[in-house]
Amino acid sequence: MTDKVESRPSSPWAKIVAGALCAGLVVWLGNSTRRQVARAAKRHNNDFECFMIGGRAVLNGEDIYEVRTEQRDRWFAFPQWFAMFMVPFELMGYTAASIAWPLLNLAALAGSCYWCLKLARGPDAPVPWPLLIVPALLVLRPLDSNFGNGQVNVLILALTCLGLYLYQKRLDTWAGVSLAAATLMKVTPALLIVYFAWKREWRVVIGAAIGAIILTLIVPMPLFGMRGGLDGTCYWLEERILVSTAGVQQEGYVPGQSLRTILYRTLTDSKAGSHTERDIRVNIVSMEPETVEIVSKTCAIGLILLLGLLTFGRGDRDDVPRTAAEFSLLLGVMLLASPYSRKAHFVLLMLPMTFAWSRLALAGGEFKGRKFLLGTTIACFVLTSLTAEFPFGGVVSEYFVALTCLGWGTLLLLLGIGSVLIGRRE
What we know:
It contains 18 helices and no strands. It is mostly helical and 426 residues long.
């Protein structure tokens, strides 16, 4: 069952405003990433340089997991296939890469906006081009973090949204391949594949297995051999993924904005800011870190189990609102439960925020939980925006980041979307 979606023609003014906003975003985000690539060319020690050294190691026949940036304090943290993906950027040099890398990310952003709208409104619903700006505006703060650091999270967002859209279009095997590619960049999206296994959508799971085999064994084979590809993937999982789950740094600092971070910063006497000389602490009690770690894992498991309960039963792609709500819950739980979630990772909120906006703005009539969804959506947007340096300044934003506002905002949004999903089941 698909809810009626109102279709309003775009006025000339709407097109002018949307066009101006699109142009502004392209210039702002593209220039932010371009500066990071240029900075990598000079200092050789930022996020983009960590990607480049992977491609450089492939060209030089070096071990991609042994190379370091110029200051020797950063390394390549992705699978072998992504190192091969970075080879063309290394070959073209930093000047050309300062154009190609922003264009690639902007194209991924445009695709993500389109696929999010399709997922939220239905595959057959029209998407007037002025609406394409809306999903990006809803997650401006995470986008700023991603583009401002030259990161890859928008590429992961695009692969994730594409996979879910292909599922919506009943191209299940290709959906699994796309989700496998997202998972084999950063492991967090693996929960998506678990979800489809839970829903007994076996063609998606088989597609994910095929995608994993292609990217971990077949693609690296010409350079690393099949055995080398398998060994490299195992090393990536053990040394770059599992080891980093410890994530407790000096003075008890736990990076990120996930549920684990929320609990550590509120329940232990630990430092809550890393990129500042100020000793920011926001705890309300002082529990032992070992106890909080147990609480954190228990809460993460509880969130996943609750998600499983709310999404129990076979999927019904024809029920667009329910499917989109489940996908939105899934991405939100994924961000909160994962110990890896940093500010830029929250670009994945694009789908939950787009779903909420679509239900509130475009769905005809009232529905159960509408006011609650409106409140939680506004709260999520405000909390995530507070972590930006503009307009409050760096000092204020540092405290909002320390308070894990992105995590709290996500939690509130999940409550709103969960209430809508429960209302549809009743």
